[in-house]
Amino acid sequence: MRCPFCNHDEDRVIDSRATDDGTAIRRRRACDHCNKRFTTYERVEGEETMMVVKKDGRRQTFDRKKILHGMTVACEKRPIPVEELEAAANRIYHHLLSEGLREVSSAEIGRRVMEELHRLDQVAYVRFASVYRQFKDLDEFMNELRRVISEGDLPKNSEVDKPK
To answer: What's the per-residue H, E or C state across the chain?
Structure first.
């Protein structure tokens, strides 16, 4: 493993444990050269690669990092811990794997991301939905916002109704 700080290739593992969701091994390492610490994650890659079918019919290899990136952008400046986003991205990935799909549509992935964001934070959900659903005008956006508000179940990370 190369140190991300000094690029030296000798390190030692300080701690090793499974992630909370059991989908990876987290290893805490220390570089033997600069003594800085860093974390690596080991995940099992399936023998078969899952493909994503885009709206225009193109196919590309499934990349969990893209899901995480989209969720991170939607949650920017929101009080959502990175660990919760990681866990949500892992849930999406493992649900798709458990269904035995070799191909999945980008629309299905987007739908699952919206479900996860809806549980985590309403603002992040509306941000993602506005891009994903490509609202054509303010009316479409407001209709979605009204629907979310009418549900009345504010997620645990909502800033609404907190005392000032």
So the answer is: CCCCCCCCCCEEEEEEEECCCCCEEEEEEEECCCCCEEEEEEECCCCCCCEEECCCCCEEECCHHHHHHHHHHHCCCCCCCHHHHHHHHHHHHHHHHHCCCCEEEHHHHHHHHHHHHHHHCHHHHHHHHHHHCCCCCHHHHHHHHHHHHHHCCCCCCCCCCCCC
